[in-house]
Amino acid sequence: MNAAKPPGGLVWFDEPPPPPATEQLSRERVVAAAIALADESSSGEITMRAIANRLGSRSPMALYRYVGSKDGLTDLMVDEIYGEITVPPPGDWRACLREMGLSAWAAVQRHPWFARLAFSRPPLGPNALRLYDSAFAAVEELGLPAAARVGFINTVLGQVFGSGLALLEELAMRQRTGLTSDAELAEAAQPYLERIAADGEYPHYIRWLNEPDPMAEVVTFEQQLEWQLDGLQRLAEAR
């Protein structure tokens, strides 16, 4: 007797192939509809019923024949976005990781939910494996041990996903509070900032806040990525 399959198994492991596409449903259509709905939501949250409605299906249960489970759908959605990330051919490891970081950040800005779901499932789909294979090829020239090679790659991707989680939470907060612009947020916070300035408990923070236009030169993702690459280059040269 075969052992029961554990819940939450990756769709890549042993799920049967999806049934043939119909005029209404296919694996590709289900995944595309799920991504479109997640993109429209500030939180990235979606339901199988909403996907079914988008596709004109009478039953959400019909979707499971194409994706296996909600976890299977997550695997497919995440891997679809991994396919939007590019790594140039090997030759200059720093340029390769920079392009990977920038294209991943562009993908996260298009699909902020990706940063959250990417942490929830192992990156074992074909697009994710292709990305990591290309990234490993890029750092091969450094002659680093295995742990250091994956550390270089995950340092860049960690910066992407950390920034993406911050973006996702900010978008959800803005919709929840109705404070959609930076000016509205600043205006709402002003009475509290004036109170803590008067208390004098956080002098260094208040001194920064009182400098002329303290947010005039916000550190961009691109600048943060260069700092990360500077550190990785020093490590590579030291080895």
From TrEMBL:
Keywords, sorted A to Z: DNA-binding, Transcription, Transcription regulation
Region (Disordered): 1-23
GO biological process: negative regulation of DNA-templated transcription
Domain Tetracycline repressor TetR C-terminal: 89-234
Pfam families referenced in this protein's UniProt entry, alphabetically: TetR_C_1
InterPro entries: Homeodomain-like_sf, HTH-type_TetR-like_transc_reg, Repressor_TetR_C, Tet_transcr_reg_TetR-rel_C_sf
GO molecular function: DNA-binding transcription factor activity; transcription cis-regulatory region binding
SUPFAM superfamilies hit by this protein: Homeodomain-like, Tetracyclin repressor-like, C-terminal domain
UniProt xrefs under PANTHER family: HTH-TYPE TRANSCRIPTIONAL REGULATOR RUTR (PTHR30055), TRANSCRIPTIONAL REGULATORY PROTEIN (PTHR30055:SF151)
Name of the protein this chain belongs to: TetR/AcrR family transcriptional regulator
